[in-house]
Amino acid sequence: MKRSILLSTAAIAAAFAAPAFAEDATQLDEVIVTATRIPAIVADTPGARVIDGKTIEQRGAIFAADILADVPGLSVTRSGAFGGVAQVRMRGATPGKTLVLVDGAPVNDAAEPNGAYDFSSFELADIARIEVLSGPQSSLWGSDAIGGVISFTTQEIDGLRAEAEAGSFDTVRGRLSAGVANETYAFSAYASRFDTDGISAADEADGNTEADGFRSTTLGAKGRYVLSDAVKVDGSVRWNKSKADIDGFPAPNYALADTDDTQEGEQWSGFGRVTAKAFGLTHQFSVSASDLDRSSVSGGFGSTFTGDRQAYRWQANGQAQDIDYAFGVERNEASAALSSGLSRDLSITSVFGVAQYDVGALNLTGGLRYDDTDDFGSKTTGRVSAAYDLAGGFILSGAYGTGFKSPTVSQAVCDFCFAPRSDLKPETADSVEIALGWASADGRFDGRATLYRLNVEHQITYSAGRYINVAKTRSDGFELEGRALLGGGFDLTLAYAWTDATDRTTGARLLRVPEHAGSATLGWTGDRLSGALTVRAEGDQDDSGGFSTVARDGFVTANLNAAYELTDQVTLTARIENLGDEHYQQVFGYGEPGRSGYVGIRLRY
């Protein structure tokens, strides 16, 4: 039954494939992506998707992991329903190969063994836009972008907003924000809080009954000031602190079970930027930084990790006839202190350039970047893409790109190694993809189908007591995505991905990458009532079961979200998660909530 539902979703998706979640209720607008350094049309950019604030609100998504799973080619794994480590794999690449940006600031955890970002406490209350660039993006952003880039942009608020919600598992959520915005200046600030008693992180079906709670607080501010027609300054800061009760692997069985383990994290990120027009170019001088402290207590023993990153960037944008271009210089610095007492600073100096040629039916884009690491040599990466308007609403596009990832701090110092350390070199990748998109003449339907192959060489693996370059991986994939405005206030969004991700060294499938995954969202917008029903499905996947590989069963879940406008300023909200009360796991051994409900109120002044 589960497989039939998944295949049905795929078949529908094939009929309506589309490159973005658009926001207009009567016609699908042309969507622009900005994380490409030069603003680009999503339909002309292979692997690009945009999720806007209206879509986030329509879906009732609270945390980033709640909506990223709907992007084809992204696999979200969560080790515990509330506060458990949540990581993203893009097109089968391991989590540390996805670069995460918040207002342009890289926030990947420098102290995590693979440099992966944990999305478990990333609330979306202050997020206006999410951009996803799948495939190697090292020519744009350097290291860590082999799988792709996920870029979050925070909101600029004008007025007063407040939200409150309560529901299952004694969950309480609230948010307050205020700001002023006009053409000359803008400033806003916000605070949000999420608190729940939760469920057992270890699956209750295995006899685990102790509830594991989660608490998260996020504060932030954003500002902009236009000094003149040629100069403006802007910046933002975002801070989060969270604490999660988690489960561990107690003696004597060393199997996942109820324990008193806890995990805490505190992170801040921000940027400051000056934009100035001079010599026929638009110059951006920016400084961004992020800092993360996390600690855990397991079996009475504690461990602490700290990591920080800074990026110093100058970028210039210009235009010459039919060519838009950008170039610049960048310095990225990362450091981490590990629980073992080891620490290390790693830095990269880079120069980059990208150009876009758009004339008639043809769009060409090319990028080149040279990265010089302080410790692991230098690497040149590039990417070329093309899009051609075939007429009749069809667009044929394709891309070829290369990527690299420098060893992390844990790998560089050989944390917890029991054998002589080997000389590591950066991981490298290459990828090719081709896509066919279509949009109807009336703007009510559009879609895209994508075929790709991603190869990773020299993948770093912990083996025989040390880190070594050994693994070779390959991901072959097929992605379908689409949206249709059906009339009567209804809209339909669909996504499907087939991912064949294997370790070419051993021939085994890569862990925690489902071969089939898909989602379908039916939305409705009326005069005062609106809502969305989202059905999400994943097929079976290989997972880690201690010292062996196990199969995690596939699943189908559904979420329902609704809002009713009492007035222009007051809206009542309600959502039901896991509508069918499905018992399932995202990660083997870890439980997910059964049917749960939440009601709330939203104020806008």
Mean pLDDT figure:
92
Distance between the termini: 47 Å
Low-confidence stretches: 1-25
Helical segment tally? Answer: 5
What fraction of residues sit in β-strands? over 45%
SSE-based structural type: mainly beta
What does it look like?
Helix content is about 5%, strand content about 60%. It starts with a helix and ends with a strand. Strand 1 (about 30-35) and strand 2 (about 40) form a beta hairpin. The strands form five sheets. The chain has a 22-stranded antiparallel β-barrel. It has a five-stranded mixed beta sheet with strand order 3-8-9-6-7. It has helices spanning about 1-15, 55-60, 65-70, 140, 410-415; strands spanning about 30-35, 40, 50, 75-80, 85-90, 100, 105, 125-135, 150-155, 160-165, 170-180, 185-200, 210-225, 230-245, 260-280, 280-300, 300-320, 325-335, 345-360, 360-375, 380-390, 395-405, 425-440, 445-465, 465-485, 490-505, 515-525, 530-540, 540-545, 550, 555-565, 570-575, 595-605. With about 600 residues, the protein is mainly β. It contains five helices and 33 strands.
Primary descriptors:
single chain, 605 residues, 5 helices, mainly beta, globular, 5-stranded mixed β-sheet, disordered N terminus, 22-stranded antiparallel barrel
How would you summarize what this structure contains?
With 605 residues, this protein is mostly beta strands. Helices cover 6% and strands 59% of the residues.
